[in-house]
Amino acid sequence: MAAITALTGEPEPTAGVAGPRGMQAGRRRRLNVFRYVVFTLFGLFFLLPLLAMARFSLQGVKLGTWSLTAWRQIGSYPGLLSAVELTLELAIITCVVVLVLLVPTMIWIKLRVQWISRAFEFLCLLPLTIPAIVLVVGLAPVYNRIRHYNLSALMLFWAYVILALPYAYRALSAGLNAIDVKTMSEAARSLGASWFTVMFRVVAPNMRQAILNALLLSSALVLGEFTIASLLLYVNMQVALYNISRATPNAGVLFSTSTAALLFAFVLLLILSYVGGRRRRRI
Amino acid sequence: MAVTATTETGARPARAGRRPSGPAWVGTVPFLGYVGVFLLFPTGIVLFNAFRNPAGGFELSSLSTLGNSAVRGFFVGSIELAAVSSVAGAVLGAILAYAIVAGNPDGVVRRVYLAGSGVLAQFGGVTLAFAFLAAVGPTSGFLIHAGWFYDFPQGISLIYVYFQIPLMVLVFLPAVDGLKVQWREASENLGASAWQYWRHVGGPLLAPAFTGATLLLFANALSAYATIQAWENQIAYTVPQQISTAINSEVGLSNINEADVLALGMVIMVVIIMTGYALLQRRAAQWLR
Questions:
Q1: N or C: less crowded end of chain B, CB within 10 Å?
Q2: A189-238 per-position pLDDT tens digit
Q3: Residue A109 Cα, gap to closest chain B Cα (Å)
Q4: Structural domain tally of chain B?
Q5: What is the ipTM of this complex?
Q6: Which residues touch B187 (CB under 8 Å, ≥6 apart)?
Q7: Do A42 and A119 share a structural domain?
Q8: What is the pTM of this model?
Q9: Are A137 and B116 a contacting pair at CB < 8 A?
Q10: How high is the pLDDT of residue B40?
Q11: Residue B41 sits in which domain range?
Q12: CA distance A89 to chain B (A)
């Protein structure tokens, strides 16, 4: 089989790229028809609810008319803007703490304490198996204590870091495994670099893409978080939206804020993938 | 707090300028401390409280709440919803994953769908329920006025499938990617039809990965709370909703630790499912790398 591949001059397929390559023309045509039908149907399923929400946010007073009223309300609806602001601040704090907690620890483990890496991975992925709703039951006493010192809703970041751990860990470990940390650090160390330099000036810059991914996943998670905030009685963006929906179902501002939040998340994704893509090309 | 601690430990050996004398694992202490306080301790509290009776003593009888018929109803509801949405999501997601893999690996379609899946798999929550309310809500839907929108489990399953499919794509795509083109060529050279290829080669190879991914989707649906709460907040159908009710109702408690016992029940279910998932993943990794 390897010989056949070598004869045709094609590189060894790394990722099952070549599904259709080994097929006869007729089958390939049928496969392409199948693919485009699938893409269209799934595309519609994913897009229509979002478009419906966007359309609803532009609904005028009378059905079928267009108006920007709901979008203007975002700024003036009581409590909404402060909740949005809180969520954005939480996203930033969570991202910073996740990185500060994970990046040095992961590099350090990779270089010096390999034996702990399995246990470390287990701990990082553990939040995936503990539903947020369970975590919040146990977090209630911890937060009672935190509220003794600080009433700010920003304190939610302590819990959000835990929620973001598995996603950030996966993104970072993919980046860390893709580079030869050992050689890099040995080279740097033999040139007289301190461990601090090794981590922050040698290894970390080489996993920029992974760090960006971790940032994206963590902030997306915080932007959409509802369970913990709601049950610990903090009002973040999602809780504020939920409260609006309970007070006035079908209020336009509900849909305009939701749409805005989504657009924001997509823009975030685009920026990060653009920055990451440019970086890849340069290498 | 954690911030400064990490940096210090990271930098400490540097000052020494030689092989650090302290054990190297000290560098992981900030992380372990954080996880201990905000993950292990809360989980421990739940398990600890689940075994306590209202008087403060320990007894297993608290667990008998789990056998109570009303409580059993929430577990049945949770399992029903998780089963419907995970099987539907897994089948549809597998079809989509195959369609993606069969195309150009550097193509726009693949990139768009993968990036989109990454976003949409996370896009549960309140917003998603609103999007469906706008699209197919019983009185306000733009597409159809679905009378069954508030029926359990059809209505909420439709919403769950929206984030289950992308999750399936993310989890299952590497397995489909791992099917080597040589296997297909070999079976075609031996005269196998497409059906025979999938029946005897592709299918069995993907089966462990598919089952494992379905289990992951099941656990995902089981622990979801925000979406179903935004969809219907008057009636509790699932365990997470009932946990929230138990936490919030401060008055007239017949059973102080109901939330803890329900949470314990969820942890047990999720642990069983995730163990199955891990075993199947290992099985799948034998062939697909």
A1: C
A2: 999 998 889 888 888 888 888 898 888 888 888 988 999 999 999 999 88
A3: 8
A4: 2
A5: 0.81
A6: B196, B197, B200, B201
A7: no
A8: 0.81
A9: no
A10: 93
A11: 28-62
A12: 17
CA distance A253 to A259: 10
Task: Count the neighbouring beta carbons within 10 Å of the beta carbon of residue B111.
Answer: 15
pLDDT at B47: 86
Can you tell me the distance from the alpha carbon of B66 to that of B27, in angstroms, rounded to the nearest whole number? 42
Q: How confident is the model at residue A9 (pLDDT cuts 50, 70, 90)?
A: very low
For A195, which of B13, B140, B274 is closest by C-beta distance? B13
**Cβ atoms < 10 Å from Cβ of A182:** 10
> B218: distance to nearest CA of chain A, Å?
12
Closest by Cα among B267, B279, B133, B160 to B215: B279
Please identify every stretch of chain B with a pLDDT value under 50, giving residue numbers as ranges: 1-18, 251-252
The answer to whether residue A20 neighbours chain B at the CB level (below 8 Å) is: yes
CA–CA dist B197, B195 (Å, integer): 5
- Answer yes or no: is B166 within a domain: yes
For residue B11, give both structure tokens: 């930098």
As a whole number, the mean pLDDT across chain B is: 82
Question: Both B174 and B248 in a single domain?
Answer: yes
Tell me if A207 sits within 8 A of A174, measured CB to CB. no
A277 contacts in chain B (CB < 8 Å) = none
Token output for A35: 């693919």
Give the structural domain span for A267.
Answer: 78-282
Q: By CA distance, what is B241's nearest residue in A?
A: A133
- Determine whether the interchain pair B225/A266 forms a contact, defined as Cβ–Cβ distance below 8 Å: no
Same domain, B172 and B140: yes
User: Angle of helix B239-248 relative to helix A132-149, nearest 10 degrees?
Assistant: 30
Q: Which residues 49-88 of B are in CB contact (within 8 Å) with A?
A: none
CATH number for B128 = 1.10.3720.10
Identity of residue B52: R
Find all residues with CB under 8 Å of B185, minimum gap 6, and list them.
A1, A4, A22
